[in-house]
Design a protein that fits this description.
The protein is mainly beta. The chain is built from 3 helices and 84 strands. The chain folds into 9 domains: 33-126, Cadherins (Immunoglobulin-like); 134-230, Immunoglobulin-like (Sandwich), CATH 2.60.40; 238-342, Immunoglobulin-like (Sandwich), CATH 2.60.40; 350-450, Cadherins (Immunoglobulin-like); 513-606, Sandwich (Immunoglobulin-like), CATH 2.60.40.60; 614-716, Immunoglobulin-like; 724-823, Sandwich (Immunoglobulin-like), CATH 2.60.40; 831-937, Immunoglobulin-like; and more. The strands form 28 sheets. Strands 29-36-35-31-33 form a 5-stranded mixed beta sheet, with no helix packed on it. Keywords: Calcium, Cell adhesion, Cell membrane, Glycoprotein, Hearing, Membrane, Repeat, Signal, Transmembrane, Transmembrane helix.
Length: 1082
């Protein structure tokens, strides 16, 4: 009976084994399935992947271990991708362009020759910076007036870049930078940063550079911007060909051109015409100035001998810019110049009388000066007034004159040259002649000298004896004879005596004579009206009314009056030194008989400090860059004072400043007040970047007068502060089921530079480390780009950068890291490992003998990944250890299935095929089943071995992220789980530049490499088998990576400028200066 029972058990066992091994193949075909993660997520391929490159490998498993055939389905998919049917390697057949197509839905297939499984993969085309920025709406040109204020936006350039991230973020700059214009790096707004001047520059050709912000290979585009400056009427006219001092001959006919007065409008864009007028100094309107042409002509007859014209003219003329309708504008300029009247010989000498008569005694001695007032004058000047004086006529030799040679004017004295004798010549008549070289220029006067007879001879009878005969009857009273006596006696006793009374009749034979030929007086310009200037005095040798003198001015000046009787000159009008510095007046002295004499009065006006210094502009602008190392001129200003020296000597003082007053200095250079900054300024400490100064101009008068003017100094920012993130490292957690496009974090950087060009507004953010996240380049918002899967990658280390608006070497960068940890969600069912299970059990094995260990793995964490095992349906021959736990990340929980064999006498126990079901505690309705066939268990007694153990790899520093460095080869002589290897980097990867495939042993780059930062890496790789806990074995390999250089850094000069001095005799090819540069090694 026992033998029979044993035979029955063996039959059952054989039947069971036969059923287990044959039944699955005979009843149904189990289809293959894909193992690649991207069928449930997405797959990223960068657009610069070359045609023919392997982009991935399809992995699939067939439960029946049938050979698999891979393929790709669809017309579009087959145009772009090819699949090697046996290996599943996917190749790229056509170039990708993310800007044309950024996403593909590709259907791949796997077949076991009995059935086909298809899976759709969302292939995302990763962006590569392969597009340069493109400018829109070209060409660029703009016209602006020269008075455009500083900080005014004048134009906006527009450029876009279809790339993503930093490669699509465009920054604008000028190449080279312009001292007059700035461009907003982010917005492309062009603004004026310095005052423009059409008269200096009429236009600017600027080159705008649009550069994307890709850190590896930035691309740029250039475009021209033409800025035309239009003229504005902002400048006063200016006289040219100064000075206008000139001479004119007094005999010039009216209408003669004296001088051309020319002024020009300094606004050269559309210069206006000039109108000319005479402001002052045009005595008797003797000159005419053409309003349009500026021709100064003679308007009347000149006579240098006229006292009004003899000293010349000080003319002040004004040039005024004319509006289009010929009306005067407010823009004007004045100038003063002297016109000297040149003498011509147009006057003959003139005596002060046409006839001179005199009676003198015949006893006048030789040398006696005749009491005659003879004056001769030639009104010309210089050589033209030279003449000779002599006597001519009968008996003129009895007299002599002096002087005989005269220039200008002289008093002539006639003296007796020979003894006079009334008895011989009782009267002399001769001529007095003044003669110039030119015969027609002569002066003539008659002289008559009558001798007075003196008793200088005694009487002498004509006969010594007179005889007469008379009749005796001669009547009494009859004349007897005449006795004639010649008066020729000298004896005093022989004299006759008689009284003679002669009454003289007064004649007006004397003219008034001034005590001075020229009276000089000086008055301050602020002298009070009514002040006595001086008193002129003229005397007249006549008596009575003929000797009474009255005083008059030859014309009627508006500033002075003269007392008719006393000659007292009084100031009648206010003086102004700036309008007239001297007055020359002609005074007439007239006696009672009408005789006149002229004299001159010169009144000099003395300057008084009554004019305040006046600045040429109402305000001044200047600019300076912060951090200027040496003294720099900021602006210059000028004030004028209409007073005369020393009252008009001006000094400048800086009286106030809103900040940094001690940093400024003002000095006088060529009449200008030059404001300089003596120490470097800090833009960040200047409110609004503007410093307001007040400058005072003070004259040298006593007391001094002053005025002030505002000066605005604009400080330009230098990029001297780097961006700084609010945290050097951001650590956050997010659930793995966060939706695509959700906000993860806002990073924020600050820049102490205060300007828009270099400060906070200029910051551009960029992100490196993973394509799963996107960073808004302006706001710093980090968002997800697709769905995340903690089981694929649980932690992301991102590098964020903030760059300011600097260009080239001046650009500054701030760096921070973002550590993102994904929180687990129970989103994965358990999965069986190494199914189907085949176990060989020795018959007659005792109860509780371990038959097989089955493994179901749930990649979720903690409780989400805990697995509970059970036999379903229950089987009386088998029990399972349903222990559950909380394994670590990616760890597995294993359980032991115990097979209890019931002793049926001598028959072998019968095994039943057991389905195993793994369940999660939450009760998710997800399960997997497996059939087992018993066979012998492997013991983990082999150590993983790398072949080779040392890898030497060379990489270019320009390789992209996720670039395959090498594929490791490691073998384990065990079988099953004991031969399943996991790879880890345990050394040399402190900064996380590389990763290794957990299962495939493929080493890839995580971020971009930089040879200049680190040129080599030595990685320690460990391979750990999946043997039972406590008996796992580890193999080690070393990977040496050498990073090769690419030309990604440009040279940098160590200085902004280099200066040297050389002799002019230096020979050719001589080295004059060495210009070192700092370049990253190539």
């Amino acid at each position: 009976m026992a033998v029979r029972r044993c035979g029955l058990i063996r039959s059952l066992l054989l039947s069971v084994l036969l059923l287990l091994s044959v039944s699955p193949a005979m009843t149904f075909n189990r289809l293959p399935y894909f193992l690649n993660y991207f069928f449930d997520n997405f797959f990223l391929i960068y657009e610069d992947t070359p045609v023919g490159a392997s982009v991935t490998q399809l992995l699939a498993r067939d439960p029946d271990n049938d050979p698999l055939v891979f393929g790709v389905v669809g017309e579009e998919a087959t145009r772009y991708f090819a699949v090697e049917s046996s290996t599943g390697v996917v190749w790229l057949r056509q170039p990708l362009d993310r800007e044309m197509k950024s996403e593909f839905q590709v259907e791949f297939s796997v077949s076991d020759n009995q059935g086909v499984i298809k899976g759709t993969v969302n292939i995302q085309v990763g962006d590569v910076n392969d597009n340069a920025p493109t400018f829109h709406s070209q060409p660029y040109s703009v016209r602006i007036p020269e008075n455009t204020p500083v900080a005014t936006p004048i134009f906006i350039v527009n450029a876009t870049d279809p790339d993503q991230g930093t490669g699509g973020s465009v920054l604008f700059s000028f190449q080279p930078p312009s001292p007059f214009f700035a461009i907003d790096g982010a917005r492309g707004v062009v603004t004026v940063i310095r005052l423009l001047d059409y008269e200096t520059t009429q236009g600017y050709q600027l080159t705008v550079n649009a550069t994307d912000q890709d850190k590896t290979r930035p691309l740029s585009t250039l475009v021209n911007l033409a800025i035309t400056i239009t003229d504005v009427q902002d400048m006063d006219p200016v006289f040219i060909n100064l000075p206008y001092n000139t001479n004119i001959y007094e005999n010039s006919p009216p209408g003669s051109t004296v001088r051309m007065i020319t002024a020009i409008d300094q606004d050269r864009g559309k210069p206006r015409g000039i109108g000319y007028t005479i402001v002052s100094g045009n005595t008797n309107s003797i000159f005419a100035l053409d309003y349009i042409s500026g021709a100064l002509t003679l308007n009347g007859q000149l006579d240098r001998e006229n006292p009004l014209y003899s000293s010349g003219f000080l003319l002040t003329v004004r040039g005024t810019e004319l509006n289009d309708d010929r009306t005067p504008s407010s823009a004007m300029v004045t100038t003063s110049f002297n016109i000297l009247v040149i003498d011509v010989n147009d006057n003959a000498p003139q005596f002060n009388s046409s006839e001179y008569r005199l009676r003198i005694t015949e006893l006048a001695q030789v040398g006696f000066a005749l009491p005659l007032f003879i004056q001769v004058q030639d009104l010309d000047e210089g050589p033209n007034s030279m003449f000779q004086v002599f006597l001519t006529g009968n008996n003129s030799d009895h007299f002599i004159i002096s002087p005989t040679s005269v220039q200008g004017r002289a008093d002539i004295r006639i003296r007796v040259a020979e003894p006079l004798d009334f008895e011989r010549v009782s009267s002399y008549r001769f001529s007095l002649l003044a003669n110039e070289t030119a015969s027609e220029h002569a002066g003539f006067a008659r002289v008559q000298i009558d001798l007075i007879n003196e008793n200088d001879n005694r009487p002498i009878f004509t006969k010594s004896l007179y005889n007469a005969s008379l009749f005796e009857n001669t009547t009494v009273g009859t004349a007897v004879l005449q006795v004639l006596l010649l008066a020729n006696e000298t004896a005093s006793e022989h004299a006759g005596f008689a009284r003679v009374q002669i009454d003289l009749i007064n004649e007006n034979d004397n003219r008034p004579i001034f005590t001075k030929s020229l009276y000089n007086a000086s008055l301050f310009e602020n002298t009070t009206v009514g002040t006595a200037v001086l008193q002129v005095l003229a005397t007249d040798g006549d008596f009575g009314t003929f000797g009474a003198v009255s005083y008059f001015f030859s014309d009627e000046p508006d500033k002075f009056s003269i007392d008719k009787d006393s000659g007292q000159v009084t100031l009648m009008g206010r003086l102004d030194f700036e309008l007239a510095q001297r007055y020359t007046l002609t005074v007439i002295a007239r006696d009672g008989g009408g005789e006149e004499t002229t004299g001159r009065l010169r009144v000099n006006v003395l300057d008084v400090n009554d004019n305040t210094p006046t600045f040429q502009k109402e305000g001044y602008l200047g600019s300076v860059r912060e951090n200027e190392p040496t003294t720099v001129q900021v602006t210059r200003l000028r004030a004028t004072d209409d007073d005369s020296p020393p009252n008009n000597q001006i000094t400048y003082t800086l009286t106030s400043a809103t900040t940094f007053q001690s940093y400024f200095d003002i000095s006088v250079i060529e009449g200008y007040g030059v404001i300089s900054v003596t120490r470097p300024l800090n833009y960040e400490l200047v409110p609004g970047g503007i410093i307001y100064l007040t400058v005072m101009a003070k004259d040298a008068g006593n007391p001094p007068l002053n005025s002030t003017v505002p000066v605005t100094i604009e400080v330009f920012d230098e990029n001297d502060n780097p961006p700084t993130f609010s945290q050097p490292s951001y650590v956050i957690t997010v659930p793995e089921n966060i939706i695509a496009g959700a906000t993860v974090l806002f990073v924020n950087a600050t820049d102490l530079d205060a300007s828009r060009e270099f400060g906070q507004a200029s910051l551009i953010y960029s992100l490196e480390g993973s394509s799963q996240f996107r960073l808004n380049t302006r706001s710093g918002e980090i968002t997800t780009t697709s769905l995340l899967d903690r089981e694929q990658k649980s932690e992301y280390i991102l590098i964020v950068r903030a760059v300011d608006g600097g260009v080239g070497p001046t650009q500054k960068t701030g760096i921070a890291t973002v550590n993102i940890t994904l929180l687990d969600i129970n989103d994965n069912p358990p999965a069986w490992r190494d199914e189907p299970y085949q176990v060989n059990v020795v018959e007659m094995s005792p109860i509780d003998t371990d038959v097989v260990t089955v493994l179901a793995v749930d990649p979720d964490r903690a409780e989400n990944g805990s697995v509970v095992y059970s036999i379903n349906p229950s089987n009386r021959f088998y029990i399972s250890n349903s222990t559950s736990g909380t394994p670590p990340l990616y760890a597995t929980a294993s359980t032991t299935v115990q097979v209890n064999l019931l002793d049926l006498n001598d028959n072998d126990p019968a095994f039943q095929n057991l389905p195993f079901v793994a369940e999660v505690p939450e009760g998710l309705p997800i399960g997997s089943s497996v059939y087992q066939v018993s066979k012998m268990l492997d013991v983990n007694d082999e150590t993983p071995t790398f072949i080779p153990s040392v890898y030497n790899v060379t990489l270019l520093e320009s390789v992209p992220r996720d670039h395959t460095v090498t594929r490791l080869s490691c073998r384990d002589g065990d079988a099953g789980l004991n031969a399943e290897l996991s790879y880890f980097i345990t050394g040399g990867n402190q900064d996380g530049k590389f990763s290794v495939g957990f299962r495939d042993g493929v080493i890839q780059t995580v971020v971009s490499l930089d040879r200049e930062t680190q040129a080599s890496y030595t990685l320690i790789i460990e391979a750990i088998d999946n043997g039972p806990a406590g008996s796992r074995r580890t193999g080690t390999a070393t990977v040496n990576i050498i990073v090769q250089d690419v030309n990604d850094n440009r040279p940098i000069f160590l200085q902004n400028s280099y200066e040297t001095s050389v002799l002019e005799t230096i020979p050719e090819s001589t080295s004059i200066v060495q210009v070192p540069n700092q370049s990253q090694p190539l």
